Amino acid sequence: MPTIISTGSTTARSYGYLAGGAPVIIYNTFTGFSNPINLPTAVSSASFGGFAYSPTLGRYAVAYAQRSSWSTDAVTWAASNNSAAGPNLAIQTMIWNSVTNQFVAFGCDASNTHSFFITSTDGASWSLQTYFATTDAFSPVKVIFNPSSNTYVVAGTSVYSGTNGYMKVATSTNGGATWTIVQLSNTNNNNIYQGFDYSPSTTAKYVITSNYQSGPWTAYWSSTDGITWPAGTSGTALGVVGNYRAQDVLWMPAYNQWMMMTYANSTGYAYFYLSTDGQTFTGPTQQTGPTTYYGRVISTLKGEVVAFAGTSTGFGYSKFNGTNFSSTTTFTTISLSPQGLWPLPYVNTPTGNVIALISDNSGNGRSYLFTSY
Known about the structure:
Layout: E1 4-9, E2 23-27, E3 37-38, E4 48-54, E5 59-64, E6 67-71, E7 78-79, E8 89-97, E9 102-109, E10 115-120, E11 127-131, E12 138-146, E13 151-158, E14 167-172, E15 180-183, E16 191-198, E17 206-212, E18 217-223, E19 239-242, E20 244-252, E21 257-264, E22 270-275, E23 282-286, E24 292-299, E25 305-311, E26 315-319, E27 329-331, E28 346-348, E29 354-359, E30 367-371
């Protein structure tokens, strides 16, 4: 019988399910990932653009480059017709919206002159819903849908000349018919977006983190509605952490805390910060276990938190225990650059399984599928 840690609400991630949702029982049952499955060449990619699962359809959808595919088992894939929505559209983030019963995706065209919003009822054929103006062009890297307010919130980086590299957030409260786009305070072309998540429980409902490459440091912002993002003193970001670069941010319902994953600029070692309100973070705490680099964190539907990271010998993962992480389990069979974990698309299935896609950066263009067990 699994150990019950607590009860809570499902959290928000861009790769597979919604913010809000019915209460779930959180179990301490995650034991690891199976050995990777080599994906077919047709789906292999140096950079996945999105990954989502529909429990209604029992179907997966994945995007890569300017293509997309769908599957019923995440192993055998069929090509999708996203070109029906428009030519040269590169999907960069995707979710399944269980309220509207459709896959929802955002991205940029090949020339980086227009952002777009497209939908699909089956993952096989896509329809264009919104084509953003050139001046509003940004590279969307994550979308969250909040059903309690019928709000889409999309975070990304501007690709429009003059504001290239600035952090932007697009919000819609009417299903994507109209959008409000804001630029976050104290961002410039040295910013690199690194994390975005949602909490139904804290003062800050949405939190975004980014790197300042000229710092180096981590900056973060929080918002109660996804539209207004208060600045800190003197118009800066809400919070700044020196000498550590952001990698990810995650709401952890099992622990009623936010986690902001970073790495030390001087060593690359993984460190994390914690927050109960999404506005003030404490830390850093170095991730335990073998030396780990450039960590990404995910949350299972059972509330467990798992960090993926590069290690001194390859690629691995470790599980959060409420204080720190367990020793890292390493897959030495994968030739993976420690920085090759972004965007780390993954989905949670109704059975509690986590399926994650990892790109092999050894130059052979292969990608891998991991399934939890």
